[in-house]
Structure formats: structure tokens, C-alpha cells
Write a sequence for this structure.
């Protein structure tokens, strides 16, 4: 790992004093990450209020060039829907930061009941926001699962039923009598974020959903992505991923897994070692580096350039993961903490 002192020395001289001051006045005196506290998902920070995010993306700080050229895609995916104080879906898309927004979560399914949890966001207006984001060429996905325990697939029939409900309630289906929470808006695909229960039948659900692409001509109307744990392989999603139907995999390098979580002691080395396994195992899928701003060492309400807290990401981690030919971009958990820390305003230029 590159030492913090070396990073500071390599930065432009005009910024050395302010950066050193910021590091010394960090609560811990160094760049460290906070641990997750709830189901492996970073606990949300206290709301700070304030207005909507700016519509224009600020340029990334001009840090010295890294030693080796890296593949950058500019692709930034964010999870939205976990805190009412994060702002609307439209506001997230209008920041210009994200290329994909994942609505989370469709969290009750598998036993004849189907429902989603948007953490206090009113349903009214979400459909219009989905269309607005899509008009800006931003993909909008719906994630199923999450940290709750209201879902499972106990049988092949339940997998078929869940696929049928997703198709008719959120995708291109229009069966009469099926409630569509977002009106006539259709999401671009389904993300699998399976955190509880067993692994059975998620491969069947993936095949069921992919089968609906037969109704589209010349394009893929139902995209499949997955957001597994960083520990390889993820026992809950391994069977589904083996189908080869998932075009993108957002690996969650955050949470409580000390082997590979960025903020749980694994550091850049542990993340990079796990990343190699994911990238090598799924060469036909784009693999995304999933990180949580709340675990990246950026203190709440940080003043001045946020880049000072992210130098390890810039110098150590991103160059390693971007060596993979199937590196896809960066996934951000989640919009609420990203809005508070302004994390993506920096990372966007590095992704």
C-alpha cells in the first residue's frame, strides 16, 4: 500500500498545506473506514437537510497521474430508495453523476405476496421520475431482495410466479388486474441483491426473466444484474450467476466481511485479491467495484476537497481493479450517504 506521506508529497505544492491540515484534523488522524452496523449495510448518517444536489458535475480534483495507465469507463451506478432524505429519483439523475440508478428494494416475494420498500419515498411521482431518467439515457433497474427477511423462493413455481409478477408489475407486461406501483413506467431490468434465505430457484427466476426478452425486437428489454457479497463465491447467488445471464455484477466490497470489505479491515489488498477472483470467474460479465461512501473515510460534512480522504482509492485500489478487461465501473451504496459526502463528485472522474 502506498503510504499517505508519499501521496501528500506527490500532490501539487499549492495544495500540500491544506491537505496536511485536513488529514491532521481528521477525527482519527488518518484515512480509515467506518464499520457497517446493520445487516452488513452501512448505517445511514443523520439527515443534514439542505437543498438538491447541483445539476452540473464538478470536475474531479487534479491529482498527479498514477504510475500506470488504467481502464476508465466513467460508469457510476448508485442505489436509490433507502432514505427519504436522499431526495427524489429525478434529483439523483439530474446530478449528472450516475449512469445507472438502482431502485431498492422489491423486498417481499415468494409466498404469494409482492411488495417493495422505498423507505418513506411516496410512490406518486416515481413513475414519472423513471421516465425522466431514461430520457437522459440513464438506466433504471429494480433490485430484488435486500437486508429484510420477507422474501424467498421455496419452489420452482414460486420462481415462476415472482418472475410473472415482476414482468407484469414493473417491466413490459400489462396483465389486467396486476398493480403497477410506478404506473406505466417500466424499469430497464432487475438486479438480484439476495441477502437472506437460501440459494434455491434464483437460477430459475433469472431464466424466467431473461425469457421475456423474446417480446423485444432488436434490443434487450430485460437486463439482469446481480449485487453479491464480496466473499467468493457468494453462496446465495452462485447458482444464479452460473447461468451466464447476468450482464453486470456489482460486487459489494462493503459491510462486515473482514476478508474483502474495504471498511472492515480488508484494506485495498483484501479487496484487490477478492476482485481478481470475481473478474476471472465471470469474464463475459462487466464487474463493478461496489463501495460505500460511509466506509471510505470521508467524514460527514467534510469541508474542502473530498479527494484528500480518497487517495488510497485513487492510487492503490482503482489502478488494480481497472487492470481487469471486464472492469465495468463503480457502484455506490447509496445515494443518501453519497449526497452527504459528495463522494461521487470526486470518484466520477476516476471511474
Amino acid at each position: 500500500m502506498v503510504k499517505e506521506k508519499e501521496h501528500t508529497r506527490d500532490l501539487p505544492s499549492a495544495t500540500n498545506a491544506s491537505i496536511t491540515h485536513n488529514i491532521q484534523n481528521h477525527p482519527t488522524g488518518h484515512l480509515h473506514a467506518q464499520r457497517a452496523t446493520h445487516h452488513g449495510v452501512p448505517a445511514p448518517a443523520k439527515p443534514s437537510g439542505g437543498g438538491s444536489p447541483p445539476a452540473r458535475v464538478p470536475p474531479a480534483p487534479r491529482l498527479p497521474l498514477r504510475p500506470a495507465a488504467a481502464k476508465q469507463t466513467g460508469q457510476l451506478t448508485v442505489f436509490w430508495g433507502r432514505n427519504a432524505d436522499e431526495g427524489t429519483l429525478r434529483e439523483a439523475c439530474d446530478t449528472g453523476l450516475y449512469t445507472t440508478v438502482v431502485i431498492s428494494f422489491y423486498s417481499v416475494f415468494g409466498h404469494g405476496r409482492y411488495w417493495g420498500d422505498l423507505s418513506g419515498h411516496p410512490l406518486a411521482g416515481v413513475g414519472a421520475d423513471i421516465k425522466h431518467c431514461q430520457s437522459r439515457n440513464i438506466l433504471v433497474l429494480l433490485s430484488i431482495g435486500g437486508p429484510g427477511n420477507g422474501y424467498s423462493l421455496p419452489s420452482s413455481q414460486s420462481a415462476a410466479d415472482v418472475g410473472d409478477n415482476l414482468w407484469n408489475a414493473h417491466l413490459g407486461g400489462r396483465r389486467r388486474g396486476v398493480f403497477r406501483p410506478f404506473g406505466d413506467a417500466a424499469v430497464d431490468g432487475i438486479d438480484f441483491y439476495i441477502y437472506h434465505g437460501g440459494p434455491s430457484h434464483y437460477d430459475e427466476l433469472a431464466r424466467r426473466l431473461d425469457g421475456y426478452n423474446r417480446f423485444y425486437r432488436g434490443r434487450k428489454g430485460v437486463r439482469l444484474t446481480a449485487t453479491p457479497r464480496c466473499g467468493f463465491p457468494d453462496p446465495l447467488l452462485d447458482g444464479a450467476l452460473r447461468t451466464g445471464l447476468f450482464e453486470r455484477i456489482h460486487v459489494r466490497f462493503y459491510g462486515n466481511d473482514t476478508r474483502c470489505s474495504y471498511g472492515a479491515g480488508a484494506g485495498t489488498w483484501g479487496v484487490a485479491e477478492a476482485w481478481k477472483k470475481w473478474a476471472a470467474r465471470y469474464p463475459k460479465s462487466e464487474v463493478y467495484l461496489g463501495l460505500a461512501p460511509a466506509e471510505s473515510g470521508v467524514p460527514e460534512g467534510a469541508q474542502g476537497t473530498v479527494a484528500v480522504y480518497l487517495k488510497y482509492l485513487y492510487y492503490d485500489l482503482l489502478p488494480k481493479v481497472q487492470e481487469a478487461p471486464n472492469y465495468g465501473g463503480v457502484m455506490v451504496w447509496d445515494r443518501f450517504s453519497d449526497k452527504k459526502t459528495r463522494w461521487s463528485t470526486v470518484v466520477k472522474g476516476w471511474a
Notes: The domain at 4-11+52-347 is CATH 3.20.20.80 (TIM Barrel). The longest strand covers residues 100-108. Confidence is low (pLDDT under 50) at residues 1-54. The two ends are 20 Å apart (CA to CA).
